[in-house]
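Structure request: DAGKc domain-containing protein, Desulfoglaeba alkanexedens ALDC.
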Amino acid sequence: MEDTIHAIHTIHTIHTGRFNHAGCLNTDDPEWLAGATRPRIGVISNPLSGGNRKGFQSVERILSSYRQVFHRKAVDPEQVTAAVRDFACRGVDLLVVNGGDGTIHAVLTALFTTRWPHRLPVLALLRAGTASMIARDVGLRGSRLRALSRLLDWASSGCGAPSIVERPVLRLEGAVGAQPIYGMFFGAGGIYQGIEFCLNRIHRAGVRGELAAGLTLGRFLLAAVGDDKRTIPPAAIRMSLDGMAMRPINALVILATTLERLFLGIRPYWGSESGPLHFTVVRSDAEHLLRAIPSLIRGRRSRLGSPDRGYISHNVREIRLLMQSGFTLDGQLYLPDPQRGELSLRSGGQIKCFRL
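Returned structure:
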């Protein structure tokens, strides 16, 4: 899974009735959020994720005290899919993901391609990965052990005030096999190369978490400022936003996300439109990089960070890309299939994430 899975296998899509008349996922709140009933809880754990490799027994000890919780271990996409389908049959309505971004990516793909009774479950995401970027935005606060204990205590006693965070989910088509895959963060260009560098150099040195992400960001910012094209070779792409004609661009960084914060709290998107996907491109010939980037990674418009100077950011509904270079979805690395043509990114629906 995280750090070990580099492809999602084809999963057969089952059409369901969980979409409303507008084509969006039904998001009616379940009764247990108001305390009327108790949720049926399922936990998917990846014991090989960055946060679980050491100390997974502590998770098992916590769960052993709550016999009514269904717990499944899953370290690859097939196991995740099997667990999700089992939980669907059992009527689980609160699904806890104890794994990293790659595990969440596999869970989202399984959820959106599996028949589910009534509505999709609410997700509770633990910070159990190497970076846990998704969980830091929409998951439970604190360490995975404290967060899991807090959630299970609430489920038993009803004490506490839960809340729900909603986010759109990215649907990526044309990547792997015939079926779409789902996630929350897409990156190419320097982002793809940065993840490779982090996996091969930073993690092997024993550095993990947001510190590893920060060191990688610093390394690649220095390379970009120094116009080091060996470290960050420009990605030649053709892109179309919201149905416009394809246009060529040499990109330093390409990203699309439905998250509101990335690692270290950065939010490098500043579009003003109402689309569900944050999309940002920094061209390889971007000007004043050292001066423009500090404000742009915080989501603040800058007179230096304008489209004519190489900085493009919009909130869009659909992105189409033609590219030969690699890309990432939630930390998992992919190479485009030249036989499949363009990649298509759009919103695949909404998820609800549990907060306590």
